[in-house]
# Entry
Amino acid sequence: MIDPRLLRTDPDRVRRSQRARGESEALVDELLAADEQRRAAISTHEEKRAEQNRLGKLVPRATGEERQGLLARTKALAAEVAAAKATSDEAAARFDELMRMLPNIVHDGVPVGGEDDFTVLETVGTPRDFAAEGFEPKDHLELGERLGAIDMERGAKVSGSRFYFLTGPGALLELALLQHAMAKAVAWGFTPILPPALVKPSAMEGTGFLGQAAQDVYHLPADDLYLVGTSEVALAAYHAGEILDGAALPLSYVGYSPCFRREAGSYGKDTRGIFRVHWFDKVEMFVYCRPEDSPEQHQRLLGYEKDFIASLELPYQVLDVAAGDLGLSAARKFDCYGWLPSQQRYREITSTSDCTEFQSRRLGTRARHGDQVGPVATLNGTLCAMTRMIIMLLENHQQADGSVRLPAVLRPYLGGLDALTPVR
RNA sequence: GGAGGCGUCGCCUAGUACGGUCUAUGGCGCCCGCCUGCUAAGCGGGUUUGGGGUUACAGCCCCAUCGCGGGUUCAAAUCCCGCCGCCUCCGCCA
# Structure
């Protein structure tokens, strides 16, 4: 949720943002009207209530006829107050409902347009020339099966399509990536957290995942709990309803959790292997900071993502995602796309969003600066999405014989092994 | 799952049997000032949060807020109902 005052102080900014996203401006008009109604209704209620309080205080000391008169008047007032409160509650709820539908205000400089209108900010590293090396690259599934690292068939048998087992070297590879990622994050000053993967509706709603993304979320109706699609949800809700110490900002957390996604809108897309699955594990960075620091913190998270990808010796691109593809919460989003040899193109491996005050307002997280209490910004960024990273490692570091070279940084976590070799 | 206890403005706490001067007490902490070689102590004042009004600012005013949501009443921290969380004990279980 954005700062409601922005509607009155700078409605044009809100309209500009909506246009950049390709969203309707009608919502802004509705909001302005609802805001006016809400404010009028609240002020009516407050006036009546003040009068009721004033008269009510006289009752205990009054006697006889005076008391009877007061009681009659306060009784009548009470009915008016109740009616005014109902009107005011309704208007406030209507305004709130509309406010929650309004996406975050996009930052200036974000490319206008939809999914394909991103800007490539930089390209790092060079994709390998497999033709020059004299062999055709295999895709991650073929490599993974031959290594005994990925078992899709049993994944489907046990859990259905888009499920998998990581086995033997596959399982060890995830654990190595986890150790490597956590070691880096801790060195960068992040506090490691293992958060719950099931959360209450308020956490899901507060992070903005019950909006446009709702069809992608698993819900357990028996308990009214949601399976998180990213540990961002629990890390954002971690400080819900709290007033943080402004001097302690920025707070940096790194979470590791399973992520569950229904992938409802993606039938037939990326069906081979573990590229798009219903469950994967992810190491996620999460930052709380002062609103004015969020662009700087965003760059910081992007820098860590680049560092991590580079440490695994992968060629990649950095994308400035277009406004129409930002999702409800983000004011800006940078994606890192790694080179995927089997598809001869770059595919998403990390994503970092600056959510400014959008999530913290919904979740009631604020910070105290001296004697002022103000909003905080939240940011999130992928450090290591296991399945995507395993895909990238297998494909980019494969060798002609089907073995996979391990980047030096992972070897200490894999008993010094420098390559994974096929078992069949 | 069963039984009981608890939830007050940063922390601790008074208030809840009996509804109204509760405009929520006191302590700690914190902030400002005074005093004082320095520090400590002492003295005085301030200190929930949100929304709104007014103002050059300080400030002042109104409404809401005693875990959350309903209800009773002219009036609810206080009475009633539901929910949530924490603690203790019992049962069951990875």
